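Database export, one record per block. Field names are fixed; values are copied verbatim from the stored entry.
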Amino acid sequence: MIFHQTPISGVVTIDIEPRSDDRGFFARSYCPTEFSKAGIDHVVAQENVSFNLRAGTCRGIHFQIPPFAEAKLVRCTAGRIFDVAIDLRPESSTFGSWFGAELSAANRTALYLPPRCGHAYLTLDDNSEVTYQVSQPYTTEAERGLPPEDPTIGIIWPLPLAVISPKDREWQSFDAARPQITEYMATEARNGKDPS
């Protein structure tokens, strides 16, 4: 696997290294040893799949607060998505910044998000499917979010957001939620529980 650091510390894109023959190819898509050598301590507690009928479907911005803050390893297994990480770590020099990458069935690139980052994606093709491993199981009381078109975060989406759940539209803005985000996420950093 080939690991590429992004402008946000701990957010990494990962490309496979296929070994090809006349049958096709074989490649590792996850290996704890290789991840550890790249400085990523990724523990898998749950794996999810999300299928999206229409291009322009947006899911997120989602995150869980400590002690249920989750790392994610995201792949697009059918179609294409624009996948986004938002840094929600108050001590980070890139707090409030975002990074996006196109993930597709064709490029087989993955995006790794460390704990205390928000996550969202936009489908670029109809019938796009996304799988993601998370380091914590879904925990209702820890679920939080931000609206995907929040101007303070300023994500530049490559397509109009045509399908968004009412819940995702109604999250508080980053400016309004900043005091709570700072309080919850800074507590995790002070406790030294964040592996990133």
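Remark 1: The CA atoms of residues 149 and 155 lie 7 Å apart.
Remark 2: The first strand starts at residue 2 and ends at 5.
End of record.
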